[in-house]
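[agent] plan:
  1. take the single chain provided in the ticket
  2. run structure prediction with default settings
  3. attach structure tokens to the ticket
  4. add a short note for the reviewer (M.T.)
[agent] executing step 1
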Amino acid sequence: MSEDVLIADSWLTATISPLGAELRTLRDGGGANLLWDGDPAFWTGRAPLLFPIVGRLNGDRYRLDGQEYNLPQHGFARRRPFKLVKRDAARALFRLEADEATRAVYPFAFALDADYAIDESTLTMAITIRNTGDVPMPASFGYHPAFRWPLPYDRPRDAHYIRFEQPEPAALSALSADGLIVSDDRPTPVVGDTLRLTDDLFAHDALIWKTLNSRRLVYGADHEPQLDIAFPDTPWLGLWSKPGAGYVCIEPWAGSADPAGFDGEIWDKPGIIAIEPGGARKFRMIVTLTSRRTSFVERPGWPDLREAPF
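[agent] step 2 finished; step 3 output follows
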């Protein structure tokens, strides 16, 4: 496997692995890593890309036109080598295309582009799914980055919170022990627009919002650098950690795990997107390191990476 690819400017530095096009480090101008280090005592991941499914399938299999296919939790993209298509000092574009191995478990022609760009204190990630075949293609996508908890700015773990763009009163989904959705009525732990982070939140796995007003949040502690995170193209959100682990995953999703007992065609799976032949869907996650308490009304419009590479 090729070496990690470095992109940087004077504000941020990132490295991306060609394996899974996974973000491996995200460092501030002083060299502090904002991303989890993959300690195997808790979780070896850093920021996997979830495709062509998000979450777990019932029995780790799905049906398509009456035929069954097996897929592991979160799909196969995170375990596949991507090709580095183009790069410059502050941007890198990776691509995964269908091959014999992917067609055996997902019988579609596709190209999955992972575009990473740094501009001053902002990292923009843009994932584009293209249907390069001649039949409609079912797909889901999700981000899964693990940010350090606490962030490396000398604030205690229990001072950290997530502040949403808007109040979030809706109930959450609950997961079974095998990772399937068992209900959509888990009481929300959000008070107004703020979720105080504690290990107890994750005693029963992830927090999952299928009804979400916000497409932006701030993660951090008061009076210190924070992460301003936008996800304009994904309607659902997962938060996940393990009690005592030094990370919190902030996971914008377009898709989720199967409901418990689901046995229908993949087209009936909640969150599946239909991508027509020749069509494409883009999903952005925009992470800005800010040293002041962000006012949501002050931020300009969403960054938009060009459709054509570079």
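[agent] step 4 note for reviewer: The two ends are 24 Å apart (CA to CA).
[agent] ticket updated
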